[in-house]
Amino acid sequence: MNLKKELLRITSQFFEEIPDYSSAINEYKQLLLSVSNEDINNEVYLNNIQRKNGIAIGTLWAANCLDDLIRTHKFIKGIDIAIQEKIHQKDSLHILYAGTGPFASLILPFILKYADFNITYTLLEINPLSFEALKNTIKKLGLETHAINFINEDATKYNILKSFSPDIIVSETMQRALDTEQQVSIFYNLMKQANSDTIFIPEKITLSIGTSSYEIQKPDTLQKYYRKHHKVFEVSKEAMNSENWLFDKTTTQLNFAKKQTILKIEELSTAKEIVVMTEITIYKNEKLLINESGLTAPKYIEDISNNKKEPLTIESRYVIGSEPKLEIKII
Known about the structure:
Layout: H1 3-11, H2 22-36, E1 49-51, E2 54-56, H3 59-63, H4 69-87, E3 92-98, H5 108-113, E4 118-124, H6 128-140, E5 148-151, E6 168-170, H7 183-191, E7 199-201, E8 204-218, E9 221-235, H8 237-240, E10 245-248, E11 253-256, E12 259-263, E13 273-283, E14 286-288, E15 299-303, E16 312-319, E17 325-330
Parallel strand pairs: 3-4, 3-6, 4-5, 6-7
Antiparallel strand pairs: 1-2, 8-9, 8-13, 10-11, 12-16, 13-14, 13-15, 16-17
Helix pairs in contact: 1-2
């Protein structure tokens, strides 16, 4: 089998208007698993790497991100929009992918699609097992002749060469509600070094306080509904340059403004739970909406079904530590 031709055949489907892209993504994952020759079901590939600003997930978990089909498809479409925009502006491009996992699955389709363009790829991965699997995958696919740099470093500390600033940075290193992983720290470290016109994908991530409620659809069947109320945190270029993001030079810590949300009685009339809701703008009109992906699944905070329908005050602040998260206090 010509693996490069097979990769091109499979990934070309991502850019076509087909009704069902799930089979193409499943084919994509199976090809990458077979090519890597790594038994990533081995227990050692399950281990996450703990850092002071969050975890870098284990190799198997990173590979399984492909199973989130809508996430995979929309991220690839969003990246494609960004690349097409940039190649009409510049003769050469530099794309930095931070947190590649074992396959660099969000970038591989473009190495072949844009093979005739002058594009350099920097693949940055902290997990040594994922990093070795990545290099093996690229070699087996016959892509090593392309302009690809491999960097086995921590993306929250990586220093970008000023003469080699990226035009596009891709990093999907997150869970719903921006829990646990290093997305915010990676975004801050790389974007503070980038040019003003550098595109970061995802372009914007917002966290909002929301509520859930239930309605009877059929006898003995409850349907859960979510309602977004107030945005309390955002990751974007605009947010990074606002007063809501504060870098303390003394402690070298990134801090964020505390938010206070008041849910009025009418907003709580049918509410049963307080939740945190995540929305992701990948690029331009390509978005992951609430509950459309594992990345945007609402996070349960507290049951308020016994609330006497009095207003609730909710204090929230995003914190970076060994377990990054949006801290919530309901008063």
